[in-house]
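Student: Send me a single protein entry containing the residue sequence and its fold in token form, directly below this note:

Tutor:
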Amino acid sequence: MKLLVVEDHPALRGLLHKHLQRAGFVVDTAEHGRQAQAMLGLSRYDAMILDLGLPDMHGLSLLAARSATRNNDLPCIILTACDALESRVAGLDAGADDYLLKPFEMPELEARLRAVLRRPGMRSERRLRLGNLSLCPDTRDVQIAQRPLLLSKREVALLGELLRSAPRVVIKDHLEERLYSLDAAVTPNAIEALVSRLRRKLLAAGADSSIETLRGLGYRLVANAS
């Protein structure tokens, strides 16, 4: 899943980026509100982690501005050093889904993210399935015929996008947006190479579904003919 972290403190922003990437998320970061607002218009995110004390605007102003972007229903966890009750109430009333006081522990932030993404209407599913292939997005556990299949984090992310849309086609541009951060150096054949590796692993593990390539368009996951 893809996150936007909006935090003006360089050390904390870097720590969040590193930790959440290690946890399996695709992460974009912004250091001020205008930058974050532009990014919300460029890419689709699954959740936003938002510091209220931004240098150019109050975080709640950015939260309100999301309604004018393609992320109008974006779940948001607020980070703040202010523990005043009225501040927490204002954040939740403005549309935030959760509130975390600084300082905090990274495992708690991860747990709160998982909880927000599991709520009704959010995009986190308990388990995605097609034939004997299944994936739990929360734990990145992949199984074929109830046997575990070891995949890289990006292969799991690709499989998740294909499973969510199966058997519909997922266009290549959408996969690039979902699997890579905005500042990532993506080679022209990165998606093709990733699809090829995942296709080989599914075949070798005995999956009864496969990835089809539609030239010039994208990819889809379909059940194999009996």
About this structure: The longest strand covers residues 209-214. The first helix runs from residue 10 to 22. Helices lie at 10-22, 33-42, 59-65, 85-93, 106-118, 153-165, 172-179, 190-204. The two ends are 33 Å apart (CA to CA).
